[in-house]
Amino acid sequence: MSFSRSRCVSGLFTSAVTLALFVSGAALNYFGLNYSGDESASGMKIHPYVVVTLICMLVLSVSIGRSHSKISDRRFRVPTICSVVVIGILIFRSMGSGRQSLGFAVDTLVSALWAAAIVPFLNERTARRVWALGFAFVLVECTMAMTEVVTRIEFIPIDTWYGGYFRATALHGHPLNNALVLVTVAVSLQWSATRRTSVVIFLLTIGALSAFGARGALAVYLLTNAIWFIRFGLQSARRMSIVLMGIPIILTILGWVLLSGAFGDRIANVGAYDDSSGVRLQSIQMLQGLNWGNLIAGTDPDQVLRIMENANVGVIENFLVAYIFMFGLACTLLLFLCFWASGKGVSRLWNHGSGGTVYAIFTVFVATAMTNNSLVTKTPALYLCFVFAWAAAYIRHSHKRPASKMRSLEERLHVGG
Questions:
Q1: What confidence tier does 273 reach under pLDDT thresholds 50, 70, 90?
Q2: Hey, which residues does 67 pair with through a beta bridge?
Q3: Which phi and psi (to 5°) does residue 271 adopt?
Q4: Which InterPro entries does this chain map to (predicted)?
Q5: Which of 147, 263, 342, 347 is least surrounded by Cβ atoms within 10 Å, i.e. has the fewest?
């Protein structure tokens, strides 16, 4: 029986996505593996989905029989080089004065670039499997979140206090991490789903985001869907009539979900501006206390702690500000350049139309990520963003092309591997 590289990589990658979606760091901590702590079982500091993704990279990088290495392929080479650059930045910053704690970055940043290197060599069947996994995740994640709020019981409890407000922890532990992951997956699924399925995803996601008390993520998600809804209505008079009739219904449902407290009393009882909102503004204002040298090259962790104490800020609730403190503006821009180049490579798989899907999903992702500091912790959010942006774009493209032309598309994507 001959070895099929494409089947091997497809199976491994599907397993990696499953682990990233359903086996969170919070779950590993809960079952005693101490994934995020100072001590852990051997090998468990790196999440299993990262290990499986690395194996996929190794399989693609070697020549096996008639199947040649993908290293010479630009779609594989660019993200791989970018991952090496990011690893170099991490090593450089961890060896500097004060030594930055950057243990989160392999799972959060490097793994996403490896995903970008792998997806160009996967086929439509894998894309649809990934889509189905994402839909199953939305069903499980949202059901867990809303059930937790109703019962006031967390399935995977975490050691974080939110004052008098109960916030669901669902699959991914911290509510804001859950919100970032959920919005990323939900928006990607909606982009390539049927209208009825998209409505189901929308309603479930709204309920879950309310349960997480994630106001920033909720605002970004609602704005995204509002733009889609208006765009849908502008396509014809018939569709506009549907929009006009649907707006009062949607507003009524949203008003009840957000104000009744049925799926989260924090949003129902907290105003638009409170201490949490103030911390986000203070996080940006803290950059004003840096001199040009620290702003460009990064700041000593002890100095960051002093700045936070002076500003009375416990957590920097903005990942971009935290990156500038940790890496400096120069290395932060280099990081963004690496991810932009890798995302551009994924979007170039499609000449017209669907390539924009990748950029749109990343825009929503960044807007949501700016409302919290999840990307400064171990999270599969960015990894899943690359994966589901690719899957959504692939499926949208397959809908636009006649079935007779799909073979040529797969040949261009080197599916045969």
A1: very low
A2: 64
A3: -75, 180
A4: VpsF-like (IPR048041)
A5: 147
